[in-house]
Design brief:
three-stranded antiparallel β-sheet
Length: about 450
């Protein structure tokens, strides 16, 4: 069945709904706010699912933002080279891009729920591996953790589109906010945790940084336990009637969504990986630099929650996409060059802007898709290719800093990315659907 590119308001016919809205095995029925007769237990299940997704999202950035504030200590302890440090900050987005496209295959084989459980177990393992104070363990732990996160990044938009079809912007904002809160907690808490561990050990250990990194396995373990408890006892094999999306890779709109995701993500990973180091080279302490990153990320959570209410008043997302990227550029320039006494202002602006940009990039995946199958495949494409693009950002940023020793080269890079990303954000914000069609496989 082929579905032409349509307005985002267009509703499928009754016959089409029967063909494209086939539920995935083990799915929780979505809550329909327009149905007053919906049983209370169905609404309770929807709320429980939303809370579980938020708990998962909390741990999807902690392994990443925990590294930046303590990077200098890790480099000194492991004798990591400058190139090695640049590669370490590049690993998250590189892994997301390389491994994210595997998510639909895993979901078809296990079902989305069991796939998420397996990935949570893997994320717990990868985060805990960083307890060993050698560069090999640090690298291996990051790769394993980012492999799991990359696949979960792709699965979550499809789950939201499937189980909350009437609330895609709101639910995207909720799990984006939870992700930002986790990222902020890791950015602000890793250095104090290392100091506390060193104090408890009587200053006898120089490896407190590694213990602090491994501590972030605890919230992942909690999310794994909660998600495992709510899994259905039995599940039909997810691959028996799989829906395959065709034509997506030839669609211009899909590529605009992908490039918008990739370019705005590259800015995020430049900030996660290098902003604390930049601030420390400007004279800030490790604690203060980590706090500024944390302040920025907490503000991302607030903007992620508030954005859906703004989107509900807009016809499309073009203007807000452009505004989010241009204000991101202003915030970055302030962090790079403004007086230290005003740094909190620029951290707030940067956080609000990047939180909006990230939530918008995820939201347009759902809004440009006409059902959950297309959303899952568009998510795979946008995050797979997008994060490969994003992986270049922190590596180039680190290389520029080491080669020039000047913030002006980094500022020029970030400004250029902001402008190009704003252009693709404008194009991806048009009110239409990607042009793709579904085929059933047996």
């Amino acid at each position: 069945m082929k579905v032409p590119k349509t307005s985002a308001n267009a509703e499928p016919t009754a016959a089409d709904r029967g063909k494209i809205a086939r539920p995935v095995a083990g799915a929780i029925a979505p809550h329909n706010p327009h149905n007053p007769d919906e049983p209370h237990d169905s609404r309770a299940r929807s709320l429980a699912l939303a809370a579980s997704l938020a708990l998962i999202a909390f741990s999807l950035r902690t392994p990443i933002t925990s590294v930046g504030p303590i990077l200098l200590e890790a480099v000194r302890a492991t004798n990591l080279s400058r190139t090695g440090a640049s590669v370490l900050t590049t690993l998250p987005s590189l892994c997301f891009g390389l491994f994210g496209p595997l998510a639909p295959l895993l979901a078809r084989r296990l079902g989305s729920e069991r796939a998420l459980l397996a990935l949570l177990l893997l994320l717990t393992l990868g985060t805990a591996l960083r307890v060993f104070p050698v560069w090999e363990a640090l690298y291996l732990g990051q790769i394993v953790a980012c492999f799991a996160i990359g696949l979960m990044n792709v699965l979550l938009p499809g789950v939201v589109k499937r189980d909350f079809p009437h609330h895609v912007p709101l639910m995207t904002g909720v799990y984006s906010a939870a992700m930002c809160v986790g990222a902020a907690a890791a950015a602000a808490g890793t250095v104090p945790a290392a100091h506390a561990i060193e104090y408890l050990l009587g200053g006898a250990s120089g490896n407190s940084w590694a213990w602090a990194l491994a501590l972030w396995a605890l919230p992942v373990a909690l999310a794994t336990l909660v998600w495992g408890v709510r899994l259905p006892k039995k599940s039909t094999h997810a691959g028996r009637h799989a829906q395959v999306v065709r034509g997506l890779w030839r669609d211009p709109l899909a590529w605009k969504v992908t490039l918008f995701m990739g370019l705005q993500s590259s800015l995020a990973y430049i900030v996660f990986g290098w902003l604390p180091t930049v601030l420390r080279t400007r004279g800030m302490s490790a604690v203060d630099a980590g706090f500024m990153l944390s302040l920025s990320v907490v503000t991302q959570a607030a903007s992620s929650l508030l954005l859906p209410f703004l989107l509900a008043r807009l016809r499309d997302q073009r203007a807000v996409n452009v505004g989010a990227l241009l204000s991101t550029g202003v915030g970055l320039m302030g962090c790079f060059f403004a007086p230290a006494s005003t740094m909190w202002i620029w951290a707030l602006l940067l956080g609000a802007s990047q939180g909006a940009a990230f939530t918008l990039a995820l939201t347009v995946i759902g809004l440009r898709s006409y059902d959950s199958h297309v959303a899952a495949q568009l998510s795979s494409m946008a995050q797979g290719i997008g994060y490969l693009i994003a992986s270049c950002g922190p590596f180039i940023a680190g290389s520029l800093l080491h080669a020039t020793g000047s913030l002006y080269s980094l500022a020029a890079l970030c400004a250029g990315i902001c402008v190009v990303s704003a252009w693709f954000g404008y194009a991806a914000g048009r009110r239409e659907h990607v042009n793709a069609h579904l085929e059933s496989t047996h």
